[in-house]
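User: Structure with calcium ion, tokens only please.
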Amino acid sequence: AKAAGRRQWRHYRPALQAGLVERHELNEHLDVAIAESAFQLYYQPIVDLHTGDLVSFEALVRWPHDRRGMVLPDEFIALAEESGQIVPLGAWVLERATQEAAGWHAVSSAVRAAAGRAPLRVNVNVSARQFRDPGFVDVVRHALGTSGLPPCSLVLELTESVLMRRDDRINDDMATLDGLGVGIAIDDFGTGYSSLSYLREFPISILKIDKSFIDGLGHSPQQHALVEGITRIAETLGVSVIAEGIEQPEQRDLLAAMGCPLGQGYLFAHPLTAGQARALVRDATHE
Ligand code: C2E
Ligand code: CA
Ligand code: CA
Ligand code: CA
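Assistant:
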């Protein structure tokens, strides 16, 4: 493997640990990829834990690369945040994901409505740097306008790093998005400095409990109590909950028993290609 030379570093070394020259090179590659929209979105189902019904998909970006294969976001998102390239990349993700979701609506909304089911949603990850960009709300408005997706079918997943800073503009932007009907989720809840007070300070509609808590279900009474407590408080405040990274049937059963409404994880499905997601939408519509 050593003989393969330094080009191999990318296969195992996260971008932020790379040297300056390598980073510079990766930034240039990212510029080209952004200019050519050379990314792909995968879509991971989010399901109702009680009925198994498909309710949303989380859009997850990948970078298909001729030499490196499919590059995962952990290898380039942090670098794109650092360089500011996340702003145009994130705008592309929003445009693409809302267009795709409008396509799901075209084939499923009428049938779902007749069966009393809400329209499918799409969850889009938004990094702190992207959210703080002054043009962000307009990017969201533009994506909704060109796709025709109803705002209430879009959920923006923010990490607490957005919420930690006290900043009037961020509060105004959240209020504007909330006013449009766009949902706001706190991602990776329970890691870092998550605080339940965010739930009353900001117009949060969904809380995503991090996989590290779900992993402990069934073994750790403490984790169990935490997940159950978070779920109860969220319910009381009218905030929905998605449990992330469900891999075992026992985890799903415990979560459903404690009243957690929604879940996501390899137990249900891995992230799917756009074509696979479309096929699932069709199947789930007519089941
Ligand atoms: P995240 O938002 O916490 O997304 C969940 C990650 O967990 C995804 O990894 C998903 O493939 C993985 N996952 C889902 N279910 C399971 C499971 O049951 N077991 C395990 N072990 N893993 C599971 P992925 O796609 O590699 O994304 C990694 C992170 O990259 C995401 O974490 C998110 O923070 C970031 N990311 C992905 N797409 C975007 C994007 O379009 N914009 C931004 N700003 N960040 C993104
Ligand atoms: Ca997420
Ligand atoms: Ca997450
Ligand atoms: Ca995560």
